[in-house]
Specification:
By secondary structure, the protein is mainly α. Helix content is 81%, strand content 0%. Helix 1 runs antiparallel to helix 7 and helix 12 runs parallel beside helix 15. The chain is globular.
Length: 481
């Protein structure tokens, strides 16, 4: 094979991988904008869809993704990244078609769970495949491109969702089908074969089932309690199930030889703090994202397209801020950026609390909040992940990264469920004060993330001081025999 042909094949392989990653990341943003249209569609066909039931379209995806990320990543190490990646894209594509054809909300939620299983197989293996698809000297640039795709999808998602919903919300999922088919067809020809790196046992599959059960029960309790009553036997049963499931999961994880999540990593000061910050900030972010969509479409009665365009500034700022502050993170450390970002995001939520009005005023209300929030997310979210992973030993970086990504998905689920619990299952102008309460909760959580940033700074300072003051190893007076 000539060098030019080989180079073209490498570029095509990289394109295939990045296209699949873009498709999966786009889905995280595009569905939020389409959610109200889904509710109207099912309600008009005789199947009433409240916000509580619609929230499972988002939460089923996040729960399954959180539970299967580690399992799928380990499977890729055992049987090869290429087959797991292509299987994941195939499952995601078929599940997208099932979502588009769903006759009722229950079928849509089930298809979303299957879609998440495909994403879980694709996401951990995509970066590994990308790194073996490019020359060694280009791997840093390839990693940046892989990360930048998420930012591009975040910026394009709201507008794409709005445009597709103008036709029909089902096109939000139909668009994945040709992309998925093209990715698999091209991937079979150009993706490199990867070696099996592990032969050990799979992680605890029962643990994956337990964490899924616990998060689903917690979400169900938060979503249904406003209608059932917080002390209703059904609500209490769901919260009890969540508590018992989480307790059994933690105990099993601490005792199992190959746990789903290596929870002892949380005892490392900086990693534990960063994971806590990721969790609380992720809840605030999820509240902000869905509440803005609901406010624009259900309170201001904007179209999905107008809503999508209005929401572009926030997501578009995230990758820009992340890129521009990379050197600042190296010079100042992760903590100050997390603290600043958390406070800016809290300011964004407080701005909405003060200026949100039933009369649409984009320039006074939503745009300033989007700008403050976008800068806050750009400073905080990626920095928290970097702070956590960078504090781990090299042989635990992949495991820690999987744990942090799972925490992000869990926090998104809790955030959506918490918003439903505060606002209620029927959204309208009467819920104006409930929205303000939700934004205040998001602001408080963001301040908590800022406090975590202070803790990260102190931990890093103590670590540097200990390193400087550590005595140098004694030099032997004579060479050992």
């Amino acid at each position: 094979m000539s060098p030019s042909v080989w180079f073209s094949k490498q570029r095509l392989a990289s394109t295939v991988i990045l296209l699949a990653v873009f498709m999966t990341n786009l889905d995280l943003w595009i569905v939020n904008v389409a959610l109200p249209a889904m509710g109207s569609s099912f309600a008009s066909s005789g199947r009433a869809a409240t916000l509580g039931s619609l929230s499972w379209v988002l939460n089923a995806y996040a729960i399954v993704l959180a539970a299967l990320l580690v399992v799928a990543g380990r499977l890729g190490d055992r049987i090869g990244q290429r087959p797991v990646f292509l299987t994941g894209v195939s499952v995601f594509t078929l599940a997208s078609l099932a979502c588009a054809l769903a006759p009722d909300l229950g079928t849509l939620v089930a298809a979303r769970a299957l879609q998440a299983a495909g994403a879980a197989a694709q996401l951990p293996t995509s970066l590994a495949l990308l790194l073996v698809s490019v020359p060694t000297e280009h791997r840093t640039r390839a990693t940046r491109n892989w990360a930048a795709v998420g930012g591009l999808a975040a910026a394009a998602g709201p507008v794409a969702g709005g445009l597709l919903v103008q036709v029909d919300w089902r096109w939000v999922f139909v668009i994945n089908v040709p992309i998925g088919i093209a990715t698999v067809a091209a991937g079979l020809r150009v993706l490199p074969s990867t070696v099996r790196r592990e032969q050990g046992p799979m992680p605890d599959l029962m643990g994956a089932l337990l964490i899924t059960l616990a998060i689903a029960a917690l979400s169900g309790g938060l979503v249904q309690a406003p209608d059932w009553g917080w002390l209703d036997a059904r609500s209490v049963a769901l919260f009890a199930l969540a508590l018992v499931g989480a307790a059994v999961f933690v105990r099993r994880s601490l005792q199992h030889a190959h746990p789903l999540f290596e929870l002892p990593l949380l005892r490392l000061p900086q990693f534990g703090a960063a994971s806590t910050g990721t969790f609380v900030f992720g809840i605030a972010f999820a509240i902000m994202l869905l509440s803005n969509v609901l406010w624009c479409q259900e309170i201001w009665h904007w179209s999905a397209l107008r809503t999508g365009v209005a929401m572009v500034p926030g997501p578009a700022l995230v990758p820009v801020v992340t890129l521009l502050t990379a050197r600042a993170a190296q010079r100042l450390g992760h903590g100050p950026l997390v603290t600043t970002g958390g406070l800016l995001f809290a300011a964004a939520m407080l701005w909405r609390t003060c200026f949100a009005s039933l009369d649409a005023d984009y320039w006074l209300d939503l745009l300033p909040s989007q700008v403050l929030g976008g800068v806050g997310v750009g400073l905080t979210l990626g920095t928290l992940v970097a702070a956590g992973v960078s504090s781990l030993p090299g042989h635990r970086a992949a495991t820690g990264s999987a744990l942090v990504n799972s925490v992000r998905q869990i926090s998104a689920t809790v955030g959506v469920a918490l918003l439903v619990a505060i606002v209620g299952t029927h959204v309208g102008p009467a819920q104006r004060q409930d929205f303000r309460a939700a934004w205040l909760v998001a602001a408080a959580l963001s301040v908590a993330a800022a406090v975590v940033g202070v803790r990260i700074t102190r931990t890093a300072t103590r670590t540097r001081a200990a390193t400087v003051l550590a005595p140098a190893p004694a030099t032997p007076l004579t060479e050992p025999r």
